[in-house]
Amino acid sequence: MGEQSLGENSFILNVILTFSLLLMCFHFSLPLSLIYFRHFFLYLSSDVLTASSFYVCFTGTLEINCSKEIKIQGVIGPCTSLEKKGPSVADSIIGEGNTTAWKMCVLDKSTCLTVMFDLSSSDRANTPGAVNPQLYLQFLTSYQDPTGQSVLRVTTVTRRGVDSTVSSEELVQGFDQETAEVVMARFASLKMESEETFDATRFLDW
C-alpha cells in the first residue's frame, strides 16, 4: 500500500463504501492471491448451508424510522445514500446524510454502521412540568442471504425522553462509554479525511 501509494488515491473511498475487495498483485497465478480469494469466499460448514455458501450477504439496505423529535444527520460506514428524503432528515449532515435510507453492497458479521442523530433541533416544547415524549427508533435492514433468500430484520427501540436541564442522573445511568469512544473515533476519522485543517487531538480532548 505504501510503495504504490494506494492509500492516497481517491478511489480507495469507493472501495470502502462498497465493501469491495482490493487485491494488488503482479498476476493472479501467485499463491498469495489465491489465498486472499480463498479467505474472502470462506465457505460455511455443509451442515449449516450449502457448500457453495459464503459468510457474506448481498444487496443490503438500511432504512430508519424515528419519532418526530429525532432528526437523522447521517451514517458513517460502508454504505451510500439512497437519497430518500423525509421529515426526519436533519439540516446538518455527517457522513452519508440527507436521507433516511442507505445501500450496502455486502454485509457480514463485522459490518458496523455509526448512525448520527440530532436532538438539539427538536421542536419539543420546554414548558416546565411538561411530560417528556416517548421516543422511538426503528431500523429496517434487508439483504439477500447466501442461499438467495430475501431477509428483512426490523429492530425497534423506545424510551421516554429525558430533559437534561432538569436531571442528568438518568442519562448517566444509560450512558455506554465504550460505544461513545467508538463513535467519537469514527467521527474524528471522518473529519480528518474531509477537513484539511482539522485538529484531531484538540477535538478528542474537548
CATH fold name of the largest domain, please?
Immunoglobulin-like
Low-pLDDT residue spans: 44-53
Report helical residue fraction: 10-25%
Q: Could you state the CATH homologous superfamily of the largest domain?
A: beta-sandwich domain of Sec23/24
Global geometry: globular
In DSSP terms (H or I, runs of 4 or more residues), the helix count works out at 5
Give a quick summary of the entry:
22% of the residues lie in helices and 25% in strands. With 206 residues, the chain is an alpha+beta fold.
Structure, described:
By secondary structure, the protein is α+β, with helices and mostly antiparallel strands. About 20% of the residues lie in helices and about 25% in strands. The strands form 2 sheets. A 5-stranded antiparallel beta sheet has the order 3-4-1-6-7, with no helix packed on it. The protein has a two-stranded antiparallel sheet with strand order 2-5. The two termini are about 35 Å apart. About 5% of the residues have low confidence.
List the helices and strands and how they pair.
Blueprint: H1 11-17, H2 31-40, E1 57-66, E2 71-76, E3 80-81, E4 101-107, E5 114-118, E6 134-144, E7 150-160, H3 169-173, H4 177-194, H5 200-205
Antiparallel strand pairs: 1-4, 1-6, 2-5, 3-4, 6-7
Task: List the keywords.
five-stranded antiparallel beta sheet, single chain, 3 domains, two-stranded antiparallel sheet, Immunoglobulin-like, alpha+beta, 7 strands, 5 helices, 206 residues
